[in-house]
Specification:
Layout (H helix, E strand, L loop, with lengths): L11 H8 L13 H14 L8 E7 L2 E8 L1 E3 L4 E2 L6 E2 L5 H13 L25 H6 L7 H7 L10 H9 L15 H15 L3 H10 L7 E2 L12 E4 L2 E4 L12 E3 L1 H7 L2 H4 L4 H7 L5 E2 L13 E2 L4 E2 L5 E7 L2 E7 L5 E7 L6 H13 L1
Antiparallel strand pairs: 1-2, 1-15, 3-4, 5-9, 6-9, 7-8, 10-11, 11-12, 12-13, 13-14, 14-15
Helix pairs in contact: 2-12, 3-7, 3-11, 5-6
């Protein structure tokens, strides 16, 4: 699932403080030698050579990291290796935090999923009265993707563009389908949800996530602008066996932009079991009202499912999402019983990262 936006707010000092903060509880699989061996084999198959860009992966159980590893280079120029401490852009795997922020506010009666988008836009276009907050969260608004809208205006991925430009392009467009009719994945929905959160709370979106999720759960995560953060991997495009850096100055948020490690993502996954941040409203809201995605995701390793609050609910009751931005590609998956989670993220194209995540979850869920 693409996140066609970049990174966000939070100055360099905050980024450094958050990503170098106190780590949460970790347990590294004592007595699980066979599982560790098989997991390492999965990573080696995903990244055959350690000389180029690569991937990092982690498995968590009930909030503790039980296995994590990295293979390949985070920075080809310096030779810096990918390790469990390497930070990646989680791309569309950031959407769950945006949706959860909305659910948290709904639980506090600060907003309703039935509220029209027009309530949160200054001088809203007429069509915004027919789009609800819930439509945005479930991708049933019909609003076209802002990346396509900006590119149609001649603003390419190498040109500066931020939240203001994206929302202006969205306001000037109109839904391609009647709101509420069908699932149509669009990053515009989550940029607008971040705007809704800011309107309701009067806070920068990054600060709200930090206060409500990252800090209480002791997560080393940050919502950051499109800049290098401490320990982050470089993104690389491949052509004819050669790799070149691939980055964009776009600075939209809500649809993506969380910077962290796979280990921190699987620690976060425990919130889908405990509801420690967000409570019952979040736990039930993740899947309540989820809509059938039809065959939209065919060919991306997902044959069927229902989209809820920033996550796809599969027929076996597992939760999954993919992310792609620049050349960062990630898969985040939570087991049906919500006890085990896995994250795989790469800094160059890795077609099998979704399959690798499934294999790791199978190894550690048995």
């Amino acid at each position: 699932m693409h996140r066609t936006a970049s990174l966000r707010t939070a100055g360099g000092v905050l980024v450094l403080a958050v990503l170098s903060g106190v780590a949460g509880p970790q347990a590294y699989g004592a007595g699980d030698g066979e599982r560790e061996r098989r997991s390492a084999e999965v990573l080696r198959e995903l990244v055959p050579t350690a000389d180029g860009p690569g991937c990092a992966a982690a498995v968590g159980r009930r909030g503790a990291v039980v296995w994590e590893a990295g293979r390949g280079k985070a920075d080809l120029a310096t030779g810096r290796a990918i390790t469990p401490k390497t930070v990646f852009d989680m791309a569309s795997n950031s959407k769950q935090f945006t949706a959860d922020a909305v659910l948290l506010l709904a639980g506090r009666h600060r907003l309703s999923l039935d509220d029209p988008l027009s309530d949160y836009l200054d001088d809203p276009p007429a069509w915004a009265r027919d789009v609800t907050v819930g439509d945005l969260m479930r991708h049933t608004s019909g609003i076209p993707d802002y990346q396509d809208l900006l590119e149609a205006e001649g603003i390419g991925l190498t040109d500066p563009a931020g939240q203001r430009e994206a929302i202006a392009a969205i306001r000037a467009s109109r839904p391609e389908d009647p709101p509420g009719r069908r699932f149509s994945y669009s990053n515009s929905n989550y940029v607008l949800l971040a705007h809704v959160v800011e309107k309701v709370t009067g806070q920068p979106f990054a600060a709200f996530l930090q206060r409500e999720f990252f800090t209480p759960l002791h997560l080393r995560m940050v919502l950051s602008p499109a800049v290098d953060v401490p320990g982050k991997a470089k993104s690389y495009a491949e052509k004819d066996g050669s790799f070149t850096p691939d980055s964009s100055p776009w600075k939209q948020y809500g649809d993506g932009s969380v910077q962290t490690t796979p280990g921190e993502m699987v620690r976060w996954a425990d919130n889908y079991h405990t509801g420690r941040a967000g409570g019952p409203e979040l736990l039930t809201g993740v899947t309540r009202g989820a809509v059938n995605v039809g065959d939209v995701l065919r060919g991306r390793g997902i044959e069927e499912g229902r989209y809820g609050a920033g996550m796809l609910l599969l027929p076996d009751n597992s939760l999954v999402h993919r992310g792609d931005w620049e050349q960062f590609h990630s898969t985040f998956k939570v087991a049906p019983d919500r006890n085990t989670a896995v994250t795989v993220v790469c800094n160059a194209d890795a077609p099998d990262h979704f399959r690798a995540a499934n294999r790791l979850l199978d190894i550690w869920s048995r």
